[in-house]
Design a protein that fits this description.
- By secondary structure, the protein is an alpha/beta fold.
- Helix content is 35%, strand content 18%.
- Among the domains are: 265 residues, 3-Layer(aba) Sandwich (Rossmann fold), CATH 3.40.50.740; 180 residues, 3-Layer(aba) Sandwich (Dimethylsulfoxide Reductase, domain 2).
- The chain has a six-stranded mixed sheet with strand order 6-5-18-17-16-7.
- Bound molecules: ligand MGD (2 copies) and molybdenum atom (MO).
Amino acid sequence: MSSREKAAAQPPIETHVRLGERKDFAGGKNAVLKATEAMSREQGWARGVKTWLTVNQKEGFDCPSCAWPDPLEHRSRFEFCENGAKAIASEATSKRIGREFFAAHSVQALAQNSDLWLDRQGRLTEPLVLRPGSNHYEPIAWDAAFALIGEHLKALVSPDEAIFYTSGRASNEAAFLYQLFVRRFGTNNLPDCSNMCHESSGVGLSESIGFGKSTVTLAELESADTIFVFGQNPGTNHPRMLTSLQKAVRGGARLVSVNPLPEAGLTAFAHPQEPLGMLDQPTPLACLHLPVRINGDVALLKGLCKAVLEAGAQDSAFIAAHTVGYDAFLADLEATSWQELTESCGVSEAELRRAGELASQAKRLVLCWAMGLTQHKNGVANVQYLVNLALLRGMLGKDGGGLMCVRGHSNVQGDRTMGIYEKMPDSWLDRLGAVFGFTPPRKHGYDTVEAIQAMLDGKARVFFALGGNFLSATPDTEVTAEALRQCALTVQVSTKLNRSHLVTGETALILPCLGRTERDLQSTGEQFVTVEDSVCNVHASRGSLEPASPHLKSEPAIVAGVAQATLGEDWSGFISDYDRIRDKIAAVVPGFEEFNARVRVPGGFILPNPPREREFRTPSGKALFTVHAVPKWHLCESEWLMMTIRTHDQFNTTVYGNDDRYRGIYEGRRVVLLHPDDLAQAGFQQGQLVDIVSVFEGEERRAESFVVVAYAIPRRCCATYFPEANVLIPLRSHAEKSKTPTSKSVIVQLVARAA
Ligand SMILES: Nc1nc2c(c(=O)[nH]1)N[C@H]1C(S)=C(S)[C@@H](COP(=O)(O)OP(=O)(O)OC[C@H]3O[C@@H](n4cnc5c(=O)[nH]c(N)nc54)[C@H](O)[C@@H]3O)O[C@H]1N2
Ligand SMILES: Nc1nc2c(c(=O)[nH]1)N[C@H]1C(S)=C(S)[C@@H](COP(=O)(O)OP(=O)(O)OC[C@H]3O[C@@H](n4cnc5c(=O)[nH]c(N)nc54)[C@H](O)[C@@H]3O)O[C@H]1N2
Ligand SMILES: [Mo]
């Protein structure tokens, strides 16, 4: 083991914060102002305007921010949002870091800086190695880097001692080659960011309706008459969704927000591309906001289902023809009292009945959700109860109604379709093996939580990441740091500097890659890649900017380089022409027949979606009603239930700025939001500092110095920002069945710091 001094796993503690007013609408002129600010700071006008004119256009590149779909018809000239602009500015920045930067700064010194500072340094420009015992990265040639990885992998006792993580920005082509390499190498250790994200959705949907994705199209959302948005903050995380919600509401739809917080983007929207929007004259969106207690959604959904039944609005014909489990579902609901439900979810019976009425009257009901449902111990149950409501109202396979699981990373859904999953089904592996003439491993691999444990236990020695920021995105930051430090080799394929480059194994590599915005030139000419959005639309993405450095490689080229060095096979044909990768995808992945031809049609194509045809690929061939208990939380006087959420100025662990504009929190991120009465009762003053302590199975974890802020949040609930609070989330605290870390339900105590 090296004698290298440890680099800090957590960002430095910065407690400055300025409090302003909470906003009651999203968008408006400030959205344009902030987008322009980010562009001019990072890119300059020439590069900036070029990206703005091509993002999400049929001939351009797919926005690297969220997975919100693009309209199939009638795209606007500016098909992006403020936060997409920030993501693009961060990637397409004109700032660069190379060997001089790393010679000047040790990894320990770099780790003393904030995440914002790390991201602001600029694009990585050449492959770098951190040798055993050394504190500085130094340049390494691509071939030497590939050879080093190959040597480490070949030296392992078993292929299962290596872990291959993927973040959701990798293209379909990169992801397909990557999983092929990993399986040819001999393991299914393919954890991904989805494990921490919508895994509960995938597991819950697959079990209930035999399909793990959304069942509605964008056009259907826009023409729905009733929309519920559960546990999602689209004003910040999917801003283009507000355009669709606005369209729906203008067409008469009624929108209900189910969220502990009154999020600005669900309250009202001022479209920055409309004259009135620019004048900050918003369109009201949600007609009803249900301020559910954290993790109160099963109780709330049971209330809605009860109300639907009491109104006689169940779709009996659909239920009889297409579902199983209805009687048990009914019996459980009958045995549950309104009082138990309202006490648990914190929403009054009157409000629940009002929402139930809207759900009962709906002819085209769409249920949307994101992390507020998935990142709980019962995340799968949350999702399945949402399915129960859709089934009760017969809203599957019906034009204009259905389930909309709003994905995070821009290609996280596509990566899974391409086989980035530690438990791919046998039928899929059979096809992969048949097409490539080998026997893929069958033993399930590690998911994210298991991967960390395996590194801690010394069962995994090489960690490879295709994108992302594993250290800061995963739970239990200090524990994950120890896990990574125990590896012999850690490798990060990245565009920008982050903390995972600083907390490493004995040897570490940074392999810098092209971003989405950049031209990808290979020996037969310019290449494009493909992605799949939240509504299963597969389409091309073609970058046009000059690459940040001539030394960058594309992600597929990096994967091929590692494969060649490890397996001793020639993969160059895949890289000279990505059509050859797509031909193999067409042969292996269902729904991708004639891939090369169909993806060249502007706008791409939509993958098959059996539930839309009322085809449910479950063991019974029917959709499943499921029964779930209302979770019980026993919080003592000094305890709160904490959720970790995103500010308006970050993309996951990438911090673009220190403001959370819509929530009125500026210049700082280390805050804990509490109900004003809880704050008073605990004897805290707004602005004072507290330590946050989580107690789990007798173990204590502490995050120091958070500023207390009074906020409109239900009693006994509190909110902090990700990733600063990840240190408090125990590795062993994860969802049943999906193993998604419980990032939105952590029991904490708040301890005043001495003044
Ligand atoms: N600009 C930007 N865009 C992004 C991202 C980003 O970081 N920045 N991240 C991307 C990724 S990977 C993802 S997964 C998505 C995340 O998108 P979101 O899921 O919108 O992200 P979060 O900030 O985690 O917000 C979750 C919401 O759920 C609410 N919530 C928390 N607990 C509960 C609960 O128990 N019940 C209910 N009903 N609500 C609850 C919170 O108040 C918050 O409004 O966004 C994607 N897009
Ligand atoms: N407490 C808490 N923890 C959470 C969450 C939460 O809500 N609360 N959310 C979870 C969720 S939903 C997710 S999806 C995960 C996210 O986990 P990750 O996907 O691992 O994290 P990101 O912060 O999105 O990764 C950012 C890094 O990706 C690299 N990158 C950016 N673009 C590219 C590219 O085009 N190619 C390559 N190779 N690299 C690129 C950059 O170096 C950047 O620093 O975090 C999870 N963690
Ligand atoms: Mo995510």
